[in-house]
């Protein structure tokens, strides 16, 4: 029984259809990745799960269950209370509030006492020591990578069982993106399931057990992440692997080592 079970999910913003007939599972305790280029529908998928599509003028049909609980009729605050928290793309921290107040805000949606909140804060500070050091500074003064940490820390304050992560590596330097990826692995190792949306396929496929490829609102490929990483289509389209014969020819001409793997970008 998957933690999250999505069946026949379709979504639209008025006349613009963004998702068509999506079936997707997040097995308990795993990281599941969704890959796809700009506009493929990745963010829309997360919004349909967190029930925030309405805030963006969207609607959805189909079923979404979380540990068998149907989510379709729940309000977004009930989704958080049920254990699902979304970290939106672009970090979206409260820039004028302090780091500490941003984290406090994250605990508001979770129906728990002070002691649980203090424990969650301790855990967030362990994962991201910089958030403790800079607790009293405005969030807007943090670097992009630190803001991503704050956005993730804020989500963790609600002690989610499923974390919805929207492009956590977007716009970050490779070292920082790797740090964020390591933290996602750590969060997952402590028992939180993760649905990870990424354009950076090489990071996502290394983190995830299972992955789905979304193209123009439809799932075109899915399977174990290592199999997807080895598939020609994913290598060519999402991992930036060039045609090897052509690359070898070009390479012989240039007399430089063959470089087959690179970061895929839209
Ligand atoms: N609020 C909105 N109103 C109208 N159309 C929207 C809205 N949000 C997204 N769309 C459209 O829905 C489609 C899917 O967008 P979505 O943001 O889900 O894609 P994405 O895969 O997350 O892309 P990106 O990586 O660029 O965020 C696109 O055609 C987009 O233009």
Reported for the largest beta sheet, the result is: 6 strands, mixed
The pLDDT mean sits at: 88
- Counting DSSP H or I runs of 4 or more residues, the number of helices is 11
Total number of beta strands: 10
Backbone CA Rg? 19 Å
Instruction: Enumerate the strands of the largest sheet in spatial order, edge to edge or round the barrel.
Output: 6-7-8-3-9-10
User: What series of H and E elements makes up the topology?
Assistant: EEEHEEHEHHHHEHEHEEHHH
Shape: globular
Cofactors and ligands = adenosine-5'-triphosphate
Give helix % range.
25-40%
Percentage of residues in strands: 15-25%
Structural class: alpha/beta
Spans of at least 5 consecutive residues with low confidence: 254-266
Oligomer: single chain
Distance between the termini: 35 Å
Question: Which labels suit this protein?
Answer:
266 residues; alpha/beta; four-stranded antiparallel β-sheet; 11 helices; 39% helix; binds adenosine-5'-triphosphate
Report what the structure shows:
This protein is of the alpha/beta class and 266 residues long. The protein has a domain at 90-159. Helices cover 39% and strands 24% of the residues. The chain has 11 helices and 10 strands. The strands form 2 sheets. Strands 6-7-8-3-9-10 form a 6-stranded mixed sheet, sandwiched between helices. It has a 4-stranded antiparallel sheet with strand order 2-1-4-5, covered by helices on one side. A hairpin with a 2-residue loop joins β1 (4-13) and β2. α3 runs parallel beside α6. Residues 254-266 have low confidence and may be disordered. Bound molecules: adenosine-5'-triphosphate. Adenosine-5'-triphosphate (ATP) binds next to β2 and α1. Residues 13, 16, 18, 36, 38-44, 56-57, 89, 199 line the site of adenosine-5'-triphosphate.
């Amino acid at each position: 029984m998957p933690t999250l079970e999505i069946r026949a999910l379709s979504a639209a913003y008025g006349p613009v259809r963004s998702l068509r007939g999506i079936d997707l599972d997040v097995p308990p305790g795993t990281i599941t990745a969704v890959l796809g280029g700009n506009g493929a529908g990745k963010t829309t998928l997360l919004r349909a799960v967190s029930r925030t599509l309405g805030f963006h003028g969207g609607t959805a049909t189909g079923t979404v269950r979380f540990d068998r609980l149907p989510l379709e009729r729940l309000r977004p605050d009930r989704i958080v209370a049920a254990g699902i928290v979304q970290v939106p793309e672009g970090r979206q921290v409260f820039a004028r509030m302090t780091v500490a107040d941003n984290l406090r805000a994250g605990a508001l949606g979770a129906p728990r006492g002070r002691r649980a909140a203090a424990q969650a804060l301790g855990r967030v500070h362990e994962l991201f020591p910089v958030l403790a050091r800079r607790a009293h500074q405005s969030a807007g003064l943090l670097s992009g990578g630190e803001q991503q940490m704050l956005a993730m820390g804020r989500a963790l304050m609600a002690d989610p069982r499923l974390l919805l992560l929207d492009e956590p590596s977007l716009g970050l330097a490779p070292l920082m993106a790797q740090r964020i990826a390591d933290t996602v692995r750590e969060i997952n190792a402590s028992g939180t399931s993760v649905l990870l949306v990424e354009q950076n396929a090489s990071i996502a496929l290394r983190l995830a057990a299972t992955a789905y490829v979304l193209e123009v609102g439809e799932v075109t490929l899915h399977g174990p992440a290592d199999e997807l990483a080895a598939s020609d289509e994913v290598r060519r389209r999402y991992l930036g692997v060039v045609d090897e014969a052509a690359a070898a020819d070009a390479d012989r001409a240039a007399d430089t080592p063959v470089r087959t793997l690179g970061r895929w970008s839209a």
